[in-house]
Amino acid sequence: QKEVEQNSGPLSVPEGAIASLNCTYSDRGSQSFFWYRQYSGKSPELIMSIYSNGDKEDGRFTAQLNKASQYVSLLIRDSQPSDSATYLCAVIVLKGRDNRKLIWGLGTSLAVNP
Amino acid sequence: GAVVSQHPSWVICKSGTSVKIECRSLDFQATTMFWYRQFPKQSLMLMATSNEGSKATYEQGVEKDKFLINHASLTLSTLTVTSAHPEDSSFYICSAMTADTQYFGPGTRLTVL
What we know:
The complex is a heterodimer of chains A (114) and B (113). Chain A has no helices and eleven strands. Chain A is globular and about 50 Å long. In chain A, 0% of the residues lie in helices and 57% in strands. Chain B contains no helices and eleven strands. In chain B, β7 and β8 form a beta hairpin. Chain B is globular. Chain B starts with a strand and ends with a strand. The model of chain B has no long low-confidence stretch (mean pLDDT 94). Chain A binds chain B through residues 32, 34, 36, 41-46, 49, 88, 90, 92, 100, 102, 104, 106-107, and chain B through 2, 34, 43-44, 46, 91, 93, 100-107.
């Protein structure tokens, strides 16, 4: 089992719809979770971080964390064509005493159709 | 806040030459910086973790003598691709960490002829 898993997509949604991106992780001790967006040919940019169970909202973006089920999701409301990108999930896992490592999912490609 | 710069943004060099890429955290100090490589339509690949004042930790399969990393200050890390070959052509991206969060530089596109 991969440490961080994402559906590669592509996920295609119409403009104005809600896009739902999911990520599961294997390490129950993980404490920090991140969503990054990467446009083609560009470097990743941080969208949201989440540390506690529940929802965290920032504008059109909502991150949801469920530690019991070991998943973290990203909802994008009122999707726009400019949201078309690859969304990367990243999780900090403990690799030993005082050794924390950021593990990346392979990303989900999102296409928002006008 | 949390801005990371990279220089150069792109470079073209001849096979056999060395190329140095700089990564700077502009508005924060980063004890840890990371170097990634990304080939077209592929995922990010972590090359090494760079800690200020100590030797970098390289991921399995990454040649430390070919990809020299120096992290001499809390705001600067450099990656030198030595004796570059066409197969080293890629998108090199650095990130700097603060408070458990990584912020990425804009990347350097390297083309080796």
